[in-house]
């Protein structure tokens, strides 16, 4: 619970956000927030022209970047009042998905009303909990939220690696040993195996449903309505299977990221 942990947390988060980019197709790189609207200034360390149209994005100094993150994210999530590790997990979630999301994940883990407003009651509940348990719960909530997004199929593996990295480094900050990290990675692998097994069963069931979709009506013809319904059902079942496959892949990315940090710690 010290302001001195902000630089360490910021360094980890900036390592996930990347450097300077100026993709014309990215609305965030335009000062107007839409492609072709305003000036094309780009994004640096996650700081986008759409959110800071008056800044010279490309030439932001390290001090400016740090100030923006401290004012816009660290202070709102009460980073200085959170235990080490819990601060990093909450901070990185807030940066990646919004302050309210990060705050609510923190509150859910602490067992208080998740209203997104971190006050004295939230802080008191947080410090009464095990920081290792808090870190684990926050990142489980984070992964669950990300899995529900429509672009999960595109970015899921990368998000899994980010959550795994942040969780592992947060656990170390919270005082966990390398053995705890290995246990977390093993739990990820088990969940991934279960998802992959369920995915295989879904795909097989879907294919079977679609393959057997030839239904004769009482006149000896084909019931096209029933046939169509079975086809739709097969597509849904197979689609669920592929979702589970992607979740399994993301869990494995989490496990890999966690083990790398455990070995290096």
From TrEMBL:
<keyword id="KW-1133">Transmembrane helix</keyword>
<dbReference type="InterPro" id="IPR023346">
    <property type="entry name" value="Lysozyme-like_dom_sf"/>
</dbReference>
<dbReference type="InterPro" id="IPR008565">
    <property type="entry name" value="TtsA-like_GH18_dom"/>
</dbReference>
<feature type="domain" description="TtsA-like Glycoside hydrolase family 108">
    <location>
        <begin position="11"/>
        <end position="98"/>
    </location>
</feature>
<dbReference type="InterPro" id="IPR018537">
    <property type="entry name" value="Peptidoglycan-bd_3"/>
</dbReference>
<feature type="domain" description="Peptidoglycan binding">
    <location>
        <begin position="103"/>
        <end position="160"/>
    </location>
</feature>
<keyword id="KW-0812">Transmembrane</keyword>
<dbReference type="Pfam" id="PF09374">
    <property type="entry name" value="PG_binding_3"/>
</dbReference>
<dbReference type="Pfam" id="PF05838">
    <property type="entry name" value="Glyco_hydro_108"/>
</dbReference>
<keyword id="KW-0472">Membrane</keyword>
<protein>
    <submittedName>
        <fullName>Lysozyme family protein</fullName>
    </submittedName>
</protein>
<feature type="transmembrane region" description="Helical">
    <location>
        <begin position="224"/>
        <end position="245"/>
    </location>
</feature>
